[in-house]
Amino acid sequence: MSSKQDPFRIAVLDDYQGVALSLADWSVLDARASVTVFNDHLADSDAVVERLQPFEIVCVMRERTPMTRAIIDRLPKLRMIASTATRNASIDLKAAEERGVQVVHTGYTSAPTIELTWALILGSARNLVAENTSLRGGGWQRSVGDDMAGRTLGVLGLGNVGGGVARIGNAFGMKVIAWSQNLTTGRAAEVGATLVSRDELFQEADVVSIHLVLSGRTRGLVGAAELALMKPTARLVNTSRGPIVVEADLVAALKGKTIAGAAIDVFDQEPLPLDHPFRALPNMLATPHIGYVSRGLYARFYQDTVANICRWLDGQAAD
After folding, report:
1. What is the pLDDT of residue 250?
2. Residues 6+ apart with CB under 8 A from 268
3. Of 62, 64, 289, 300, which residue is the catalytic one?
4. Which residue, 36, 50, 197, 204, has most beta carbons within 10 Å?
5. Are the beta carbons of 233 and 261 closer than 8 angstroms?
6. Is 101 within 8 Å of 124 (Cβ atoms)?
7. What is the pLDDT of residue 1?
8. Residue 285's beta-bridge partner residues?
9. Which candidate in 115, 131, 200, 270 is catalytic?
10. What are the start-end ranges of the H helices in the chain?
11. Is 289 a catalytic residue?
12. How far apart are CA 38 and CA 107, in angstroms?
């Protein structure tokens, strides 16, 4: 195949903000490939397959469009999947390998998610959305916010994100406690946290923040029993993965006001359905999975993606 006469076709999926082409220099691909950017999201796998039929290279943003076996097997032209971040659980790597489709990843930093976690904690505790809405409507103070200093932060999972969240909790003067299945007292101490049991964490924390990888043992980890252990003044924060929390149980707890509130950036189904109760609950602060959506990280994602594609094209030319 001559790249000059018949260039490779690249699809960039789910560019919700329309920034992919401005955050990296895609022009380095001009002589060898054409780039098509899609700003919308297709949830139906048949529609995804129809859209991607002409493309040899598909660029996916995190887990927005899953690249399942059912999709990969129906894309005969597909040669490469360029994913952002260091891993992507929604790509069927075995199916890609069997088809000879190369899967590549980019660099990543946890800083934006750590920052958003604290934006959600503070936004929920100080009722920022309601206060802003009141001000814009001509009103003034409506509520009394919660303090952080002297309160207890419970962190589920002390990896890169959880550890960073814990350190900031210490900076706010909070007592930090933590739990995960394999957490040690030594690791907890490294970030200024105290290892406790899972039940103790839910019972003692004023803020419970989730930072676990979604797996068979963490799916549904936080449900009715755990929420029932929490103080009525406590808040649940999740910037990890939606299915770690049983959504129906959280909705029930918020409707019953058995906890003070929740701040959630991740959901079972994304984009969130229009009729989902999370969109309307007054004690829920919800954001549309923007933990990693920062200008710096997006630039790294797209610049690394272009570099990955260039390396792949170089390999094709050498064959």
Report:
1. 98
2. 242, 243, 247
3. 289
4. 204
5. no
6. no
7. 41
8. 263
9. 270
10. 45-52, 69-72, 93-99, 111-125, 128-136, 160-171, 185-190, 198-204, 224-229, 247-256, 295-318
11. yes
12. 22
Residue count of the chain: 319
Two tokens at 33?
A: 């490939």
Residue 135 to residue 291: CA distance in whole angstroms: 27
Q: Which amino acid is at 36?
A: T
Among 62, 64, 105, 241, the one annotated catalytic: 241
pLDDT (0 to 100) of residue 2: 42
Asked if 241 and 113 count as a contact pair (C-beta separation under 8 A), the reply is: no
Give the neighbor-by-neighbor strand order of the sheet with 235-238: 194-195, 175-179, 152-156, 207-210, 235-238, 261-264, 284-286
* Residue ranges, the chain, pLDDT below 70: 1-5, 319
Residue-level pLDDT at 94: 98
DSSP per-residue string spanning 57-82: EEEE-TTSS-B-HHHHTT-TT--EEE
Helix-, strand-, coil-residue percentages of the chain, each rounded to 5? 35, 15, 45
Q: Is 241 a catalytic residue?
A: yes
Q: Given this model, what pLDDT does residue 317 score?
A: 77
Structure confidence by residue, pLDDT tens digits, 39-80: 999 999 999 999 999 999 999 999 999 999 999 999 999 999
- Burial, 176: exposed, middle or buried (Cβ in 10 Å; 0-12, 13-18, 19+)? buried
Active site residue 63: no
* CA distance linking residue 156 with residue 161, whole number of Å: 10
Q: Which residues of 50-79 are buried (b: 16+ CB within 10 A; e: fewer)?
A: ebbeebbbbbbbbbbbbbeeebbebbeebb
User: How confident is the model at residue 318, as a pLDDT?
Assistant: 72
Q: Yes or no: say if 198 and 218 are a contact pair by the CB < 8 Å rule.
A: no
